[in-house]
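Collaborator request, handled under Task 6.
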Amino acid sequence: MAPVSLYFHIPFCKSRCPYCDFYSTTRLPLWEEYAAALARWLRAAPLAPGAQVATVYFGGGTPYLLGEGLARVLEETARRFSLMPEAEITLEANPGDLELPVLRSLREAGFNRISLGLQAGEDGALALLGRRHTAAQSARAVELCRRAGFTNLSVDMMLATPGQDPEKAAALADWAVSLGPEHISAYLLKIEPGTPFAREGVEGRCPGPDQAAEIYLAACRRLEERGYRHYEISNFARPGFESRHNTVYWELGEYLGVGPSAASFLGGRRFRVPADLDAFLAGRPWEELEEEGPGGGLLETVMLSLRLARGLDTRRLPALGGDPEDFLRRAAPLERAGYLTCRDGVVALTDRGFLLSNAIISFLCP
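Structure tokens returned to the collaborator:
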């Protein structure tokens, strides 16, 4: 059996960012109870005892807030399954929360990758985004992670925010690079329905589509010039430091998600834990799930493969009911327009193509 990946959703936050639509809560006193529930769900997980686990990811929310419970959950994982010797074990963290003793204990417990939500490099921009930390705290957080022994750091930065232009985006990229992380994620701000930003009409203060495209391309150019390979639509890495866990998603590998709202893909089936903290704490593990149907079909394979810079090998299409010749015929005018490349049957999007990926995929798979 091929190795699987595990995702733990930790929904606790000290405060909610106004652009965030992930499932989270500010009911912080539940940390200990939540860690125990994660362990209980893990013991009943629909995986064979001893199954090999290649990557583990603690996301949220603000997973760092689980404190000592993080090590407890990782210990339970190692008892129930077989963590591969070089398993990538990632923890998301807010820069303003980090303390050196806690980071050292996490490193000793087996965590080997930290993902820091920096988002912006200026205090004014951070305040606008509702972030609790400062730019100085971001730099300090990187320093603390290094002192704790972490040699694989990822930082997030946000593009097309109010007041940003291509020059400011390039400067943000330079600032992120100056911190020395191995991996950088650069996300375009998307105003999700129901969030405070949506209610406040912040979208009207953000760059329009054309300028957002130039902002994205400016950040891409700068990061690539600084030695970070653009390996996925929103992700850049120094050689060998691509996110192994997220690559599992894009390559349609199998993974199990634990925690309210956590998604899974096992045995060709997609399902999700209901986004209900109380039900997660009190319910019987894996009994009440939201079924999302089969996964791994033609459209999904094309969509996920084209997120990656290496693209889609069209020789995979017949097994999925697709026609490589028709696919390449449709891709030809897009290649002439500079949105993708076609080499030896492999179709890959360019940086400009990434900006129009949804429309391109709809055209290639009508």
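The cover message to the collaborator said: "The two ends are 34 Å apart (CA to CA). The mean pLDDT is 94. Please let us know whether this matches your experimental observations."
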